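User: I'm writing a tutorial on reading structure tokens. Could you give me a worked example: one chain, its sequence, then its tokens, then a sentence or two explaining what the tokens reveal?
Assistant: Sure. Here is the example chain.
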Amino acid sequence: MRTLRRLFARTLSFITGRGMDDQLSEEMEQHLAMQTEENIRAGMTPGEAYRQARLRFGAVEAIREDYKAEGSLPFLENLLFDIRFALRVLRKSPAFTVVSVLTLTLAIGANVVAFGVLNALVLHPLALPEGDRVYQVQTKRADAISIFYANYANIRDRNSTFSALAIFRLARIGIGVHGTAQPV
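And here are its predicted structure tokens:
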């Protein structure tokens, strides 16, 4: 639950952009002032007391960076910075941008087509159980592959090898669109 609250606080800080730097600076100055007063009470001069307080407090910039990283989402901040930088660079050279976008478009399109073919033919070849046991039997007549229903019925009735038979025919069909026939 603590992690969820922490993530929520970081996300809220990132979205609102509310800087806590002023509050952190004020708090660090208060700590330094308290340590300086303690050092003065111990007998140090004010300059030396402040110097010793700074040394004891540690690296102020490192504390600031740790505090900022703890209160934000550095991954998203870096990602947005990189995206803004890339857009600025691409805006400066439009020819390179066009070539890059076209290259990416063609490459992604080619990959989608290649995966679609691979998926259809190799990964999911047939939507049948035991699809690797399906065979195609053809008869040839002159130049065209054809089988008449009477021949199919005869083969089906005399079948002792296959568990089942089916018949299909691949044909080109024309569909009329605005007065012209389109082959399908």
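What the tokens reveal: Residues 2-81 form one domain. The chain has three domains: 2-81, 93-123, 131-183.
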